[in-house]
Amino acid sequence: MRVVIQRVSSASVVIGGRIKCAIGPGLLVLLGIGNDDDGSDIEYLVGKTAGLRIFNDEQGVMNLSVTDIGGDIVVVSQFTLMASTRKGKRPSYTDAAGHEKAVPLYEEFCRRLSEVIGKPVGTGEFGADMKVQLTNDGPVTICIDSKLR
Fold first, then answer.
1. Which of 23, 24, 102, 148 has an alpha carbon 20 to 30 Å from 124's alpha carbon atom?
2. Does residue 94 carry a catalytic annotation?
């Protein structure tokens, strides 16, 4: 399981011209789910995401988490994070979990993250053509792979 976490001052997901969710300061999390991912990957990445100290404290030092600042989170499923580019120029997505495995893991990740931060997590729509808009604050972007613990 892989996440790309972006510290944002705002983010939204638009599907079919309608805003599905929108947040102010917080995190935009792009989530890639692989064939061999399970609940242990979810727990690891939920803990990392909620506890990642990438927001500035009073001294301007990145020392606070999204929960510390009361920020919001949007999670968007993105199978392309599982792309392999080892051969040729066309990425292979064979390592990405199929719909039947990925959807329950995506939903569980969002549910657990919501429990940990104590508020609802905004979501995209699995498999939809989404327009994700964000203002990256910093910019701060962190990539974490649960298999590289």
1. 148
2. no
Per-residue pLDDT reduced to its tens digit, 64-78: 999 999 999 999 999
Total tally of structural domains belonging to the chain: 1
Which residue range is the domain that position 58 belongs to? Answer: 2-148
Active site residue 133: no
Marked catalytic residue, from 79, 85, 109, 123 = 79
CATH code at position 36: 3.50.80.10
Instruction: Give catalytic status of residue 6 as yes or no.
Output: no
Which residue in the list 6, 49, 78, 123 is annotated as catalytic? Answer: 78
DSSP the chain: -EEEEEEEEEEEEEETTEEEEEESSEEEEEEE-BTT--HHHHHHHHHHHHH---EE-TTS-EEE-HHHHT-EEEEEE-GGGG-B-SSSSSPB-TTBPPHHHHHHHHHHHHHHHHHHHTS--EE--TTS-EEEEEEEEEEEEEEEEGGG-
pTM score over 0.90: yes
